[in-house]
Amino acid sequence: MTSTVHEAARPGHQDAVRVARAAAAAAPGPGPLSGGVPARLRRLGVEVAKFGVVGGSGVGVNFVVFNLLLHGPGAAPMTATVLASAVAMGTNYLGFRFFAYRDRAARGTRRLALFFAFSGIGVAMETLLFYAAHHGAGMSGPLGSNVAKALSILLASAFRFLVYRTWVFQHRGRPRPA
User: Fold this and answer.
1) Is 12 left (phi over 0), alpha (psi -120 to 50) or beta?
2) Per residue in 140-154, pLDDT tens?
3) Quick count: other Cβ atoms within 10 Å of Cβ 174?
4) Residue 169 to residues 29, 74, 136: CA-CA distances in angstroms?
5) How far is CA 135 from the centre of its chain?
6) Which of 63, 79, 49 is nearest to 150 (CA)?
């Protein structure tokens, strides 16, 4: 008790204690819905969910364009998958830029170039996987081609998630990987 009285008597100590208490009260702690999940894991979960919303809408665009081209004018399956992926790539950029990663560094030509470069690699992966399933595994016909398309999108999406979050839509102030 004596030390407490002496500390309280020191000039500025009470102010420091008040500032420390205010900072502790204002610090974000686990909320009632977090269930003790670490903040970093919660942020990753939100990021994955937003990526899923944008990616899911891109998948919808991809399938609609794919089926319109394949079953409408009768485009070849490989042509339909490449064109559909390219259209979805454009809509995905808008979704990522203005929704999923809008809190990240400001837009620029570098980001745009990286997005389309990595998306192009993703389209190539998706196309090769589609080709292997469609021609190699015999997944042709209306149902088979759509299953092949779904599998190719799913596998290429894992690559896209990693490169978009790591290189294209970086957090502000985060150093670029070497």
Assistant:
1) left
2) 888 999 999 999 999
3) 10
4) 27, 37, 36
5) 31
6) 63
